[in-house]
Here is the input.
Amino acid sequence: MRTSRSSRALPALLATAAVAATLTIPATVPAIGQNRPESILPPGFGDPNPAPSAAPARPRPRAPAPAATPTSSGSTGQATAPAGLAVPPPAVAPLPGAPLPTDLPTPDATPTPLATPPSPTDFAAFVRADTPSYARRSLDRVGVAGPAEGAMAPNAFGRSDGRFLVTLMHRLRAPVASRWVSIALRRALMAELDTPRGVGGADFAAERAWLLVRMGESVAARAMAQAVDTEDYTPKLFEAAMQAALATGDPAGLCPAAEAGAALGRERGWVLARAMCAGLSGTPARAEPMFAAVRRDRVASGIDLLLAQKLVGSNGRGRQAVTVDWDSTPMLTAWRYGLAMAAGVEIPESLLSESAPAVQGWRALSSSLTPGVRAPAAELAAARGILSSAALVDLYAAVDAGDDQLPAAASVARTVRTAFEGNDATARAAALRKLWDEPTGYERRYARLVLTAGASARIPTTLDRPDTDRLIASMLSAGLDTPALRWRDKAARGSTGWAMLTLVDPNAPAVGYGDVGAYVPANDPQGIKQRMFFAALAGLGRLSSGDIGQGAKALGVPIAATDSWSRAIAQAAADGEPGTVVLLAATGMQSRSWAGVSPAALYHICAAMREVGMVGEARMVAAEAIARS
Here is the structure.
């Protein structure tokens, strides 16, 4: 591992997050479109979140949308696209199978509050159109990246009703169980998408940005909010933009919209942001009376006001010396997080440890933290699909090359260097085993597989007594299927490595139910891995109808049963809508672990992804299910 890598780590990470394309969320911020100006802050990250409803019944288009261009390659490559904190796992979300609610918008002419932007006459009171008409961006197609940058095509959601899509996004709890589904969802949310019917372009962008914030994708969320001209902001987008700016620790990003946001009057945070931005612009004489008005009108008080004053003073032009004391602060909020990060105020570990999962993603992407401080959060971010394997290795390269080292991170960095550059294959393999055996948490164990994917690909197949299963799982965690398939002849039939390679090999020989019966791993007393293997093979189209019927009956996997979720994802696949398929796949994986994903759900997800041309991604999801179940 060379130190020259560290100089590329941050620019690569930020660039990837901006163009590429893991909060089981406590309610960290007010719902977009909320009408009551409760506070300048979102609710605390420690607040419980109501259990989300299942996906709504999906209004079907009259004609199918053009299918996305399918990819025939079986190799996905490394998904180089840059997610949360240790809180007790929430109750597992309802699995696909329960009927979907019916009290949702139907495709008629009646506007709904969820999808309807404010009228131009209402909005003109607080938005001033400064941009010449020729420079204004259209709201008919909004996004950050196109297919050339790895995002989905503009028609990824086909002719789906926008109110249906917005409801799915709004109710989705993140992070989801699958790293690969999360990566695919980011690709969909970041894409330059045609605005669907039934929703305004700015509101649709707001929902996408808000979901990205909850996924821990702070940089992507900010880019999404900035894809709309400020003059076209709706109340929803004002709130989403505030959350994205705070998640990136960049409250100065609020300043272009601060005046209009304050005039909107829905979120008192914009009133304080207006005063704060006056100070940041170098006019403390103007800022001081604004802060006085904030205190007089009780817009903010306590640590929330102190952090704003601290930030204004930290730019070297303010006159106030402010000391921030967290002792009486019961919880961390987005406002407190964003301003503390910008002002260089250390957040107590006790508050961070009780925060929502998304905070880890925000910290992993933060340029204001040293590599050693970012490293623990970055591992979780990699497990959730926010950071690529290469970005995580670059981060540890920076830790290894840096002077300001934390002992734990420095120790991992040295071991990573040995795993890549050890004197021989035996030494490198020993370093890999050390990295894999060290963590105890579910996500951190998988994160180490992601971290070591490149090093695992360098282990020769001639190694004596290799840890074949984990070598293969590590490579596939980063999409390195070609080097993983070198181990095809070394993985014993019936082993976990053999099962994963059987799923990802585009040229694998025909399989039957006998192969499913051959996979009985010793560490699978309840047979979940075997049922996942069967469901994945069936979803990938690798089993005959007779074998599917036999396996479903013998293993108790009801893949023939349908409900509103399975019908919705199947219809989206039939209509050639990869974005809708991925969004529904994430809806079916609202769990912090694969223990909350049923084999039947895996079948429907793999089958739908395969039908819309996402064959490589479907194979990686299938292999991930075996590795993590």
